[in-house]
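Record Protein groES, 97 aa.
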Amino acid sequence: MAKRLVPLLNRVLVEKIVPPSKTNAGILLPEKSTKLNSGKVVAIGPGIRSKEGNLIPVSVKEGDTVLLPEYGGTEVNLADKQYHLYRDEDILGTLHD
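=>
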């Protein structure tokens, strides 16, 4: 049975990117050089309401690569994959090529 999680309010579902531990030539990379807290946005919530009742949309969209804080977020396991749920304010920025 396939499950799909749709975040509520201003939550963002992120799948963390696991960097390669060795190069194409087979050289092993140290752990510190491979650690970059980034992930790919899988799903977003509709946003949060302001005091006036206006909808404030989430600042990222599905498919964006984002920079994540070192700590925080809620771990979610779906279909043998590990995801993290963050608030929109907790995401530090987007990464572009």
